[in-house]
Structure formats: C-alpha cells, structure tokens
Known about the structure:
- By secondary structure, this protein is an alpha+beta fold.
- The chain has 15 helices and 15 strands.
- The strands form 3 sheets. An 8-stranded mixed sheet has the order 6-9-10-15-14-13-12-11, with helices on both faces.
- A hairpin with a 3-residue loop joins strand 13 (391-399) and strand 14 (403-410).
- The structure holds adenosine-5'-triphosphate and magnesium ion (MG) (3 copies).
- Residues 164, 227, 229, 235-237, 240, 242, 404-407, 450-452, 454-455 line the site of adenosine-5'-triphosphate.
- It is found in: Cytoplasm.
- Its EC number is 6.1.1.22.
Amino acid sequence: MKHTKVKDLLNSTTTLQEVNAKGWVRTFRNNQFIALNDGSTINNIQCVVDFENTPEETLKRITTGASVSVFGTLVESKGAGQKYEIQVTKLEILGDSDAEKFPMQPKKHSLEFLRENAHLRVRTNAFGAIMRVRSVLSYAVHSYFQQKGFVYVNTPIITGADAEGAGEMFQVTSLPLDNLPKNEEGNIDFKKDFFGKHTNLTVSGQLEGETFAMALGQIYTFGPTFRAENSNTSRHLAEFWMIEPEVAFNDLDDNMDLAEDFIQYVIKYALDNCKDDLAFLEGRLLEEEKSKPQAERSEMALLEKLNFVLENNFKRVSYTEAIDILRDSTPNKKKKFQYLINEWGADLQSEHERFLVEKHFKCPVILYDYPANIKAFYMRLNDNTEPGRETVRAMDILFPGIGEIVGGSEREERYDVLVEKMEKLGIDKEELYWYLDTRRFGSATHAGFGLGFERLVLFVTGMTNIRDVIPFPRTPGSAEF
Ligand code: ATP
Ligand code: MG
Ligand code: MG
Ligand code: MG
C-alpha cells in the first residue's frame, strides 16, 4: 500500500477505510494523540493511537522527531480545527528520536538558536512554512518569465568579470594554496590563479546576460551570486540568489514597468498558492508584535501588507526629488541624517531609503536617475544633464521594512561613450572585449535589473533577518554546513 501525503489526507473529500501516512511526530499527547507532519503542509494530521492494544515499548518510542508509519481509517474528527483524523490500527516506528537530545522540541526557540541548527530548524512550523513559500516563489519567478517568452540563461559562476566594480569578490584558485603564483614583491598574483587566468565567483550575471539579450531579445538569469560582504547586516549574505532579466530595446521606463509587474505577479502567486503557510506566518508575527510597545508595532498585518503592494502603484521619484524631500525632512534629531543628504551627489544610506519608503511615501518607491559617479560604469548617461550633475538611467526599488530590493538600469549602448567611461575608471578594455562586442555589432537600447531573491522572500514571509529565509545562510563566521 502506498502512503498518502498529509496534505492530501486533510483535503480528502470523503472518509476512507484504509490509509497509510508517513511523517515525523510533532507531539504525542496523553499516550494517544500524535500530531503527525510530513512537510507537505503546515498542518499536522492527528493520529489517534489505540493505546490499550499497543505495546508499552512502542508507545515509549513515539517521541518528538521520530519518524513513523501509521495505518488506519480516515474518519471525521470530533476535535476542533481539523476535518479528518486517522484512527490508527497499526503503527511502525521507522526511526527513533531521542527526546532528551532532539533540539527541536516544540517550544519557542530563538532565531539565533535555530540558525545554529540550520539542518534541523526546517523541522519547525515556521521554517517549514518559509521554505515552502521560498520554493513556490522560485516557481513563480520562472513561471512569470517563461509565460512572457523570456529565455532562461545560466551565466557562469566562475568568471573574470566584476560587474559592480565594488571589489567584493571571492577569488577562485585552481592551484594548491601553498603554491600560488607570486609577483616580484612576493605577494600572491591573483591575475594568474585559475589555470593562468584571474577569476572569481560571480557577483552578478548581468554583463554575460547582456550578450545573450542582444541575440535572444529577452532573457533572465536566476542563480547563486557571491559577495565577500564583510558586514553583518540583516540584509546581506555572502551567498544569495539573484534574478536578472535583461531586455533588448527596453528603456528605463520599460524596465520600471517590468520590475513592478514582475514583483506584483510573484507576490500574487504566493498569496494564491501559499494560503496556509502565509496565514501561519502572519499569526506568528502577530504574536511577536504583541510583545512590542505600541509605537513599534507595524501598521499592517502580513497579508494586508502583501495585498497593499498588489493594489498600489510603486511611487516613482527621481534621485534629485528624493534629495530635496530628505533635505526638508527632520525625521529625528540625528545630525548624521542631515549631514549625509546635504549634498547632491552623495549616495543614499539605508536610513534615508527607509525614511522615504516607510515614513514619507508609505509605499514601495522606485528611485531613478542617480548621479553618474555613484553608479556602475555600464549605466546609460542621461542626455542634457548639467555639467557636474550628470545622471544615469538607473533605478533602485525600495521596499518597506527591507530597503533596496532591486537595482537596475538602462545600459550605455553607445560604444564610444562606454569606452570613454571605462577609460576614466581604469577598467581594462581588453579583458572586457566580449562585452564591448555587444556595442560593436548591432548595439541597441537595452535594460535590465537584479532582484535579490532572499530580500523578496523576506518581504513575503514577514521575516526580518535574511539568514532566516535561505536554507543554509553564508555570512562571516557561519558556513559550517
Ligand atoms: P546593497 O545596497 O543592499 O548592498 P547593492 O546595491 O550592493 O545592494 P546590487 O549590486 O544592486 O546590490 O544587486 C542587486 C540586488 O541584489 C540588490 O538590490 C539586492 O536585492 C540584492 N543583493 C545585493 N547584495 C546582496 C547581499 N549581499 N545579500 C543579499 N542580497 C543582496
Ligand atoms: Mg552592496
Ligand atoms: Mg545599493
Ligand atoms: Mg544596487
């Protein structure tokens, strides 16, 4: 007899004589009631054990975390909260779990404790829910682009390109560590460390993605990205997943439209397909909120917040307008805040971004037309900007509670302008000859963006630390798995 998933048993339209369920024991009450979960849903199925006819030895082995196989009848449940339960006729212990030692006993664990047990935390209700939502969102990403005829491209993980020029790369070496090539000063020569060539783990698939967009029209990447972030923020990981569409003949406005439509689609998809998990996560958050002072509680519950994003257009604001708003605002008495935004041309700090989104506009914001010299070399220079106040056709999408979720731009399609910019910044033209070829042969306006998948999962699940929405977080000091 094949076993049936708990989700399907709970969604059954009829009682059934003979069923088999397999899963892990969440709790075992009164020597009689097993709450059984198999990961297919946040909900457990109650299994009622005939304790009078079950050997004492077996009852003792029904402990939290143990895997069991139960056979019995699916009957209507008299208890509140669930339609069906299983009246157990036969029970097999598949794998014991030492109750004394099993770290995931059902109680409130701190998120820090759970992070240290990333391989076991997925057995808790919250992490089961988060990981299912993450999986559904991944599917939604592909579904969106595939329906629109985008081609999925796998850009290289090991690459010589540093798209962002931010110097946050993990070096890759093919050589034994004690035999790395040295330069004349005796320092490691990273230029020759991968079979004689310099390489690193990718920080973005954009540059390679552009070469494919200039042949296939619309492409997207969705893969792991690496940044040697030596910071310990709740928004940065050293290994994260990025979604990067790139579209030929799109300009900055098209790019904003695409990003907004895409984000709304995937959020709607999660709302439609993760109802139970999102309801659970919302309940969890509401509990958490209760322990906060009134002033710090969020104005909207999770589902309301997600629906709000679907129902409202993102506010589009130029960098220059944003600076004016910030300059005129006095969000608190901190001098720092005032100082940083006093000058046109300064990069916005996350506190500024959050102020704009959470206090001023109170909705997702797309900031565009940034000063050229705080953005990457490949962004399209705006025509007709004041000398000394050159801007590029860049955009960042800022989300409440998250800050930057998307960074994107229209790309500089003019060969001469791009080369001039690279020369000014000291970027090696020979190394990027393949990138320049896109401008040499049939160049055209094109645009794209990068969306950090974990920041999206953070928003949708209502979690606040990025380490809690990726199966195995990689941050400074945590990579033991
Ligand atoms: P931030 O300002 O938050 O450091 P960034 O501007 O350096 O981000 P981009 O190079 O624009 O990031 O990358 C595109 C997107 O990738 C970002 O908008 C963000 O969603 C995501 N992202 C960037 N760095 C990280 C990271 N270390 N961990 C998780 N997501 C990230
Ligand atoms: Mg960064
Ligand atoms: Mg940024
Ligand atoms: Mg960015």
